């Protein structure tokens, strides 16, 4: 009788092990939460082969009314009020070149729904022209609006699999989007209205800003 019980327990244990192994082999999906330069990210990943994973990520970031005071521009002190809004969808591939390493290479495209920087510049102190004093609030303000849009390929590398070996996994990625030049809009009011003539110069200065950094820390859950 005891022998039959032992055999039954052993059989049950083996069945559980095989079931667990089968479930492990079927777990080819993962959900991840990330945070980094593109903002908060929600990610779904699917294993294609032992070395290749596909993933879709939605990034979102919004910073409102970030104020920086006493910024020196030439001989003047100005205050800057900035806003940042980011909404990007990534469609990418992750390649794991080494079997026993979590090192990976990533590539894909980012759909730049909205990458916008808006800034309002005002004088910090009154403006003096000889005997004439202009109150800083009457001088006006300069408003800049910078937008990246369209589809941008990205490349990167990192550590931590999109589909972790265990139930939970942590990862980090470094890379960059390669976008077109941003579109710049420049407006000004009151005495600063003539500043709008510098719009083309500002556009030319930002023509080189075609790389948007992509740095993320991820926490993934396999299912």
From TrEMBL:
Signal peptide boundaries: 1-22
Read off the Gene3D superfamilies from this record.
2.40.160.170
Tell me which domain of life the UniProt entry assigns to the organism this sequence originates from.
Bacteria
What does the UniProt keyword field contain? Signal
UniProt protein name: Outer membrane protein beta-barrel domain-containing protein
